Amino acid sequence: MPNQACVRAHTNIALIKYWGKRDETYFLPMNSSLSMTLDKLYTDTMVVFDEAFSQDSFYLNGEKQGEKETQKISKFIDLFREEKKTALRARVESINHVPTAAGLASSASAFAALAGAANLALGLDLDPQRLSTFARRGSGSATRSIYGGFVEWDMGTCSDDSFAVPVDDANWDIGMVIVAVNQKAKEVSSRIGMKRTVETSPFYPAWVESAKKDILDIKAAIATKDFIRLGEITEANGMKMHGTMLGAEPPFSYWEPDSIVAIKTAQALRKQGIPCYVTMDAGPNVKVLCRLSQAETIKEALLEHFTEDKLIITKPGKGIRELTAAERAVYNWND
Phi/psi of residue 257, each to 5°? Predict the structure, then answer.
C-alpha cells in the first residue's frame, strides 16, 4: 500500500528580514529573522511514496514539471528518505495558492508543505522544531512556515540548531494588506540577489549588525503588544535590507513605480492617524502591516491607485496541518 499524506502550509512575510547565507549548502542565515505567517496565501501538497514508482514525479498546479524542477524536489525529498532509510520513489502534487517567484514567499509555503507531507507519509514523526530544520534545506524562509503567528528563525551555530520557534499567535488585531504590484517572475531571483549583495555590497555588514538589534527590539514590542513600535521596526528593517542592494555590484532593485505609490499611500494614511507600516521582500509587492480592524479602510485608500484584484487582506495564519477529507476531495486526492 502506498504511503500518502496531504498537508497545507501558509506562507510568511519576514518583518525582520532573512537576507544572506553564511552557508550555501545548509541554508544557514547571516542573522536571525522574524516573520508573520499569513492566512490567505498557502500551498497544499500531496506526497505519495510507492514501490511501484520507478522515479520521482512532480506536478505543480496540475501540470507535470520538467527534469530541472523535479530534480530539485527529489533532492529535498532525499533528506527524508535518508532519515527513513528507504529508497522509495515519490509522486508530489502541489497546488500553490501563492503567485510563484513574485516576492510573495511562495517557496516558504511550498517547502514547508512538502516537508510536512513527506514527514507524515514516511511516518517519521519529526517534531515541529526538527521539521523546521528539514524545511530550511528547501528554502530558508520555509523554516518559519512550520508555525503560525509570529515566528523567529534562530540563526543557530550549525545545521542542527538553526530552526524556527513560535513567538506569539498574533491574535491581537494584527493584519496585513498585500499590494500585488507585479505577480510575474523576478528578473533577479532571491538567491542570486542575496548572494550578490553579501559578496559585493559595502552596506551589508552594517545591515547584519543592525538586524541583531532589530530582532531584540521587535520581540520586546510583541511581548508588550506595542503595535506602533512593531510597525516602526518592521518598516525600518525592510528599508535597510533594500538599501543594501543599491550598494551591490552591479546594483539592482526590486522596486517598481507602483511600489512607491503603495508606500506613499501608507505614509499618507499614517499622517491621517491610521497606523500602518510597509515591508517588502525580494520583489516589487508591498505588504502593509496594520490593525486588522483597519484593513478595509487601508484597502479603500489603495483602491484609488490599484484594482481590486491587486489587493489582498489577510489575518495571521496558522502552522502546517493535514488536509481534511473534504479539502482533499477538492483536488481528487482521496483515492
Answer: -50, -40
Decide yes or no: CATH 3.30.70.890 for domain 174-314: yes
CA 19 to chain centre: 12
Radius of gyration over every alpha carbon of the chain, rounded to an integer in angstroms: 19
Q: What's the CA gap between 90 and 56, in Å, rounded?
A: 5
Is residue 335's pLDDT more than 80?
Answer: no
- Cell readout for 10 is 501558509
Give the pLDDT confidence of 168-184 residue by residue, as tens digits. 999 999 999 999 988 77
d(CA 201, CA 241): 11
Confidence of residue 101 (pLDDT cuts 50, 70, 90): very low
How far apart CA 331 and CA 195 sit, in angstroms, is: 37
CA 201 to chain centroid, in Å, comes to 24
Give counts: helices (H), strands (E), the chain. 9, 14
Is domain 3-169+321-330 in CATH 3.30.230.10, yes or no? yes
Task: Please report the sign of the dihedral spanned by the C-alpha atoms of residue 81, residue 86, residue 87, residue 92.
Answer: negative
